[in-house]
Structures are given as structure tokens and as C-alpha cells.
Amino acid sequence: MKALNFDTKAIREGYRTTGEQEHSEAIFLTSSFVFDSAEQAANRFSKEEPGNIYARFTNPTVDAFEKKLAALEGAQACVATSSGMAAIFATLMALLKTGDHIVTSRNMFGTTIVLLNTIIAKFGVSVSFVDLSDLNAWENAINNNTKLFLLETPSNPLGQVVDLVALSKITKANNILLAVDNAILTPALQKPLELGADIVIHSATKYIDGQGRCLAGAVLGTEEIIEQVHGFVRTTGPSLSAFNAWIVLKGLDTLSLRMKAHSDNAMKLATWLEQHPSIEKVHYLGLQSHPHHQLAKNQQSGFGGIVSFEVNGGRQAAFDIINAADIFSITANLGDTKSTITHPASTTHGRLTDEEKHSANISESLIRISVGLEDVDDLIDDINKGL
Ligand SMILES: *Cc1c(COP(=O)(O)O)cnc(C)c1O
């Protein structure tokens, strides 16, 4: 049979009924599963017979989400987790050991950097930080113990990009795993495995749910890698709940429509901001003026919903815009139908020293917007109030 296209898979993959002929997927709210006989129980536990045992290991609703997301990312296998951070932590703990070395970028999600510098460091795994876009810096950071490159592309909030095809040539030549956190674009706009990555990680809390209702995460890759990560999850317990799995499963149905709408709204807002005399600089990958516009165009099928910009007048001017807006929610969350607005230098990046902020280009006049699905003309009017 001809392979199905993305939107068909997003709606049909992983679907099965319980025998009650229900059309929408059921939520299996059960912690354990019963066996027909003592023999069947023995065979399940010895893995001679596949099947459910206990919800920390597997659950049919979670399984439906994993199968659908795997189909969308083009992965052999997927394991779902209770949050995006649990997905990152499980990947690191399953695949690394004391003495190993990771290379990552300075532009990672803040809690990921905290995880690497505190908990992961405690287990004797060392970390080097490089400039995301600089291929030479990645290559030069490799040592004999380097096992993993971990990154987000595009970065948040400035939309820096790394060439994944070029970077994966470096990792393959050096026997290093390449893991990409794809939460900002989702497989609707970027498929890292097709570009040479070995592992994709998700915070499904963001665009995959898309409506700010729950936490969820996932790790995707080959059967061999995911078996190891699943082993860590089933033993240590950050398994995804059936209820949250059902929410993100239904989120996938509309993923590409939503990502396209987020991108369209973001493009209109960024274009309007760029021509405004009180705005110093707009960072949006869809704009020709973004230094990574062409690279993003080559490896992404859209530019996503994150727009950031710098205003004349420093922190106070930025605060004035945020405070004048009535529609935008003042929150650091992203990937919601509701647009959100935040001042990175005093919130998400507030723990950085002045020097670290400077090297990450997080200025006092920078505002980040996660563009939602409201009418973009209303969003533009709302920003205009504070300008
Ligand atoms: C939010 C986020 C995470 C963490 O995910 P949680 O679901 O909040 O644990 C990781 N990476 C990126 C890029 C994120 O935006």
C-alpha cells in the first residue's frame, strides 16, 4: 500500500477500538491489567507473549499516542513520558554513563541547562556548551568520551538554526548520537530524523497538546535506542498517564493545521513589527532579515509561532508594552492557542549572569511572543497599545 501522507497519519495512525465500536479513542484509566490464566501471566512477565501488565510499563492509550507520533516523526519507535523534562532526563540516564561527555548549545531551554549542570553533572557526565550554529565549534568540542550531541533548532527565543544534515555527518563520523528537541516546530514543520538525527525529544506540553492543558513528553528513535529509554522509564516511573496521553493524542489530529495557523499569524505579526519605527529589531525566521532565514527554509517546512523583538528604550519600554496588552497572557509558556508575552531577561533567562545574557543576546529590551490562534489583527492592535 502507498505510504499515507502526514495529515492522514495524524488522524488515523494508532487508532483501534476496544470492541465497543467507539469512534474516538478510549481512555484506559487502569493501573494494571488482568490475565486469562496463570500461564498467560507467566508468559507476559517473561516477555514470551506481548501485552499489557502494568501502566508504568505500557497502556493502550499511551501506546496509541506513541504509535501516532512515531509515524509522524518517521521513527521506528517512541516512548512517552510524563513531561518534556522527563523525556530529556530519561534519554540521558538511559544512554550515558559516568565518564561520558555531552556537547550541547548555549541556547537550550533553561531547565535543560540546569539539568545538565546539576543533576547530570552529579553522575560524572561532563558537558561542553557551544554556539548552536557554529559547526566547527561542535566538531572541536568532541573528545574521546563524547557520546551525545543535544540541541534545539531553532532556538528559543531568537530563532538560531543549525544545519542538521551537516551536523549529522560530524556525529556519524565520530560515532556520536545526535538528539534534537523538536518541541518548537513539531514534526509538522521539521523532521530531524530525516535530516540525520538519531533521537527526537518532545515536550508535548507545548504545540502537540497545543491548548495548554497538560504536561507530556516523548522520545523517538530506533527500536534499540527506545528499548533502553523505555527500560529506564518503566523502572523509574516517569510514565505518561493515560488521561494526558489521550489529550496529546487528540492534539496530534489537528497538529499541522494549527502549526500552519501559528506560522501564518507569526509571519503577519513579525512583518508588522518590522516596519514599526519604535521597534529596533525583529527576530523571526520567516523574515528575509533573519540571518538564518535561508537555512531554515531548507530544513523546515514552516517557521513556527515564536516571534521576538527589541524595542527602543530598554527594560521599561519592554515592560510598558507587556503591561499595556490586554489579550496577550503574561506567561512564559508557549505553544498554546492563547498568545503569550514575556520578558526573557527577567523571567526565563533571569538566572543568567549579565555576561551570559550578553553572549546569548538576551537584551533588556527583548520581548518574546508565542503567537496563538486569535485573529492576528487583534494581536497587532494589542501590541500597538504600548508602543
Ligand atoms: C517546555 C520545554 C521543555 C520542557 O518540557 P516540560 O513538558 O515543561 O517538562 C523542553 N524543551 C523545550 C524546547 C521546551 O520548550
N-to-C terminal Cα separation, in Å? Answer: 56 Å
CATH topology of the largest domain: Aspartate Aminotransferase, domain 2
Sheet with the most strands? 7 strands, mixed
Task: Give the total of domains.
Answer: 2
- Read across the widest sheet, the strand sequence of neighbours is 1-7-6-5-4-2-3
Secondary structure tally: strands = 12
What does the radius of gyration come to?
21 Å
- Which distinct ligands sit in these coordinates? pyridoxal-5'-phosphate
Assign a percent range to the helix content. 25-40%
Instruction: Report the structural category.
Output: alpha/beta
pLDDT averaged residue by residue: 96
CATH architectural name of the largest domain: 3-Layer(aba) Sandwich
**Which geometry do the CA atoms define?**
globular
Task: Summarize this structure as a short list of keywords or feature phrases.
alpha/beta; Aspartate Aminotransferase, domain 1; 15 helices; 15% strand; binds pyridoxal-5'-phosphate
